[in-house]
Amino acid sequence: MTSVRENDELDPDSLSEAHSWWSQLRRLWQGDVGMVPIVIGLAALVAYFQVRSPVFLSAGNITNLFMQATIFVLLGMAEIWLLLLGEIDLSVGYVTGMGAAVAVILMDVQFHWPWFLAMPVALLVTTGITTLQGFIIIRLRLPSFIVTLAGLLFWEGMLIYLVDDQGTGGTIPATNRVLYNLVNGNLSVFFTWVFLVAIVVLMALGMFRADQRRRSSGLATRPRIVLIMKVAALAISGVALAMIFDADRGTFIVLRGMPWAIPIDFAILAAGSFVLTKTKAGRYIYAIGGNTEAARRAGIAVNRYRLLAFALTGLTTGVASLLYASRLGGISDNIDSSLVLYAVASAVIGGTSLFGGRGKMTHAVIGGVVIATIYNGMALIGMSAPTQYMATALVLLAAVTIDSLARRSTGEGR
Amino acid sequence: MTNAPGSPSTGTPSDGRDDPGDPGAPSALLAVRGVSKYFGAVQALENVDLDVPAGQVTALIGDNGAGKSTLIKAIAGIYAPSGGQIFWKGHEVHIHTPHDAEALGIATVYQDLALCDNLDIVQNMYLGHESTKAGVLDEISMELATKQTLSDLSVSTVKSVRQVVGSLSGGQRQAIAVARAVMRESQLVIMDEPTAALGVSQTAQVLHLIRTLAQRGMGVIVISHNLNDVFQVADRIAVLYLGNLVSSGPVANYDMSSAVELITTGESVRVASSVAP
Ligand SMILES: Nc1ncnc2c1ncn2[C@@H]1O[C@H](COP(=O)(O)OP(=O)(O)O)[C@@H](O)[C@H]1O
Ligand SMILES: [Mg+2]
Predict the structure, then answer these.
(1) A64 to chain B nearest CA, in Å?
(2) Does residue B119 belong to the interface with chain A, where contact is any CB pair within 8 Å?
(3) What is the per-residue pLDDT across A163-197, written as a single tens digit (0 to 9) for each?
C-alpha cells in the first residue's frame, strides 16, 4: 500500500510560501471572520449617530462612550470565562453591586479602610461568591443557569440589606479619592502618550518576535506584509486614541488625558487573553467547552478548571464593581437590573458562542463598545430609555442568531 | 473471581495460537489470560485468552454484543475484569484506570475519537500533555513535533496543523486520533471500529496508517465489522462469540467464509487450528 491522498487536498509543503493572493487574504482573516458582521454593524451605527448628531464623534463624546463601555467590557470578559465552558452566570449584575457595596462600605461608612485594603477585599468577596456558586453547580451537578438565577435574587436581596443597613437612606456616597479617580481621574497628556506608545510597541515587538521564532523554526507564517499592515493599524489606532483622549474636552475647565479606567480594562484584557491563549488553564477551558468528555479522557481535571473559570468570572466582576462604584459615586440599593444582560450581550455580540468552546477576550471589547455606542448615541439623539432597551435587545438577538447560524453551517470551528 | 496464577491457560482456545509456547510466562506484548467480565447477571466475557504480539495487527472480530468493546475496555482500564489476568511484556499488571493503561504505553482510540472540534490539530495532539516553557505553552515545539509525527505516519492530507479539527474529514480525524496515540510513545494501540464511518479512500488511508504502526514495531488491536478491511490489514485474527474467544491465529488460517462462520456460529470446521470451547 502506498500513501493515500484525498484528491482535493494540498501538500503540507504548500503551506510555506507559494500561495495565491486569495488564500493569503483568507488566511489573513482566519479567526477574525466572525467579527466582520459586527464591525460593519458598528460602523453603520456610528455613521447613523454622527449624521443625526454632529457631536457624536467629538473627542469628548468618544471619551465618554469609552467610559460607558469600560464596565460592559469588563462584565463581558467576566462572562466569557464561563461562556467558553458552555456555562453562564446570571448573577454578575448583583455580584457587581455586592463588590461595589463592600468596597464603599469598607472605605467610607464606618470603617475608613485605606483603598489598598478595601479594594482587594471587594475582589475577594466577588470571587468568593461566584466560586461558591460554581462549587454548588459542579458538586451537585446543577445547571449554572438555575443556580446563578437563584444567585441573582439572593445577592440582590443581600445588596439591599447591606446598603439599607448603613442607615444612609438607600445610597452610600463614596468619598475615597482613589475610588473616585478610577473612572473620573485622567492620566496626564504625557503619560497618555507614554502608555499608548508603550502598548503599541510592546504588541508590535511581540508579534514580530512570534513571527521570527516561527520563521526560524521553519513553520508556516503569514506573509510579512500582513504583519506590517497589522502593526501599522495598531500604531494608527494608538495615535488616534491618544489624540482623542488628549484633546481638551472640558466645558469650563481644561479636561484632557486618558481616563484611568482605560488602562485598567487593558490590563484585564491582557491578563485574560494571556491566560486563555498562553497557559494550560486557558487551553483546558477551551477543551472542556469544546468536548468535556474528550478533555476528561485526556486526563484533564475538568471540575478543577470549571471551578477556576467561576473564580475568574468573580475576579473580573470584582474589577468591574470597583469601576461601577466609581462611576456611580457610591452604591445604591437600586442598581441597574440589566447589567447582567449587558455582560452576556457584550460577549455574544462580540462573537463569543453561547454554546461553549468558541470566543476570546477581545470579543467583549467589541461587544461592549457596540452596546455603549447604542446607549450613548440614542441618548444623544434624544431617544427614550425604552427605545434603547429595545434596540439593544434586537442587536443581541441578531448576535445570537449569527452565533447559532455559524455553528450550524460549519458544524463547529472558531 | 480467582484464577490460579500458575495456570493461566485453563481453557483450550490457546491451541489456536501460532506460538504454542509455555503457558506460564506469556511472551507476547500483551497477554490476556482467563479474563471474565460480568455485568450483573450478564456474562460479557468468559475466560478469554488473547495474545497480542508487538509489530503485528491483531483484528478482533465478532458479532454485535460479542464482547469486543468490553474486552478492550478491560485492557484499557475502563472496566475492571471480574476475573483473570493481564500480562504486559510477560509481567502481570493490574490496570484499574485509563491512566494506568496510558502509563504502561497502551493507547485506545475510541469510536468517538475524543477530539475537541474547536481546537486545532496541534492542540488536540497535545491535549492534557502540553509542553510549556516557564509556564507558558510552547507552541513552536508542539507544532514541530506534530508535523514530524504526521509525516512519520505519512499523514499527508491535512493542509495545516493549525486547522481546527472540526474542519477535518472523518479519515483525517481518525488519523489525528491515532497520531496522538503514537506521539505519546504508546506501544500498543487499540482501535474500536476505526473505519466504520469512513468512505473508500479514507478507509484506505486509515488502513495504511494501521500498517505503518505495526511496521514501527507497535502492537495493534483493531476491532472491525468489515472483513475486507480485516483481511487487508491484519496479521492475526481473534474471534469473539457470545463472550468466548472461540478462535485465534495467523490470518493465513482463515478465509472469508470461515471467518463469517466463526462470527455467526462460534465454530468452523474449515479452520484447522481453531477449537470450539
Ligand atoms: N456497561 C454495560 N452494562 C451492562 N451490560 C453491558 C455493558 N456493556 C456491555 N454490556 C453487555 O455485554 C455484552 C457485550 O457487549 P460489547 O462488549 O459492547 O459487545 P460488542 O462491542 O462486541 O458489540 C452485550 O451483551 C452487552 O449488552
Ligand atoms: Mg462495540
Answers:
(1) 37
(2) yes
(3) 998 888 888 888 888 999 999 899 999 999 999 99
Residue B177 CB contacts under 8 Å (≥ 6 apart), including other chains: B109, B113, B114, B115
- Please, are residues B113 and B36 in contact by the beta-carbon 8 Å criterion? no
Q: Find residue B164's DSSP bridge partners.
A: B120
Please, which pLDDT band fits residue A28 given cuts at 50, 70 and 90? Answer: low
Helices (H), ranges, A166-216: 177-184, 189-216
Question: What residues 129-148 of chain B have any CB closer than 8 A to a CB of chain A?
Answer: 129-130, 132, 135-137, 140, 143-144, 147
Q: Which atom of ligand 1 is nearest to the CA of B79?
A: 1
For ligand 1, what atom is nearest to the CA of residue B243? 14
Which atom, in ligand 1's list, is nearest to the CA of B68? 22
Least CB–CB distance from A11: residue in B98, B156, B169: B156
Domain ranges of chain A: 51-185+295-402
The reply to whether residue A300 touches residue B102, judged by beta carbons under 8 angstroms, is no
Q: Is the CA virtual torsion B38, B40, B44, B47 positive or negative? A: positive
Whole-angstrom Cα Rg for chain A: 23
Nearest CB to A280: which of B137, B161, B205? Answer: B137
How far apart are alpha carbons A263 and A50 in whole angstroms? 27
- Which pLDDT band holds residue B20 (cuts at 50, 70, 90)? very low
Residues B178, B149 contacting (CB under 8 angstroms) = no
Mean pLDDT on A226-233: 91
Looking up cell 526560524 gives A216
Would you say the ipTM is above 0.90? no
CATH code at A51-185+295-402: 1.10.3470
- Output the nine-digit C-alpha cell for B95: 490496570
B94-109 pLDDT tens trace:
998 888 898 999 998 8
Out of B39, B60, B239, mutate this one to test ligand 1's pocket (max ligand atoms within 8 Å of CB): namely: B39
Alpha carbon nearest to ligand 1 atom 2, residue: B39
User: Which of B140, B33, B147, B148 has its CA nearest to residue B90?
Assistant: B33
Share of chain A above pLDDT 90, in %: 65
Confidence (pTM):
0.85
**Spatial distance between the Cα atoms of A183 and A71, rounded to a whole number of angstroms:** 10
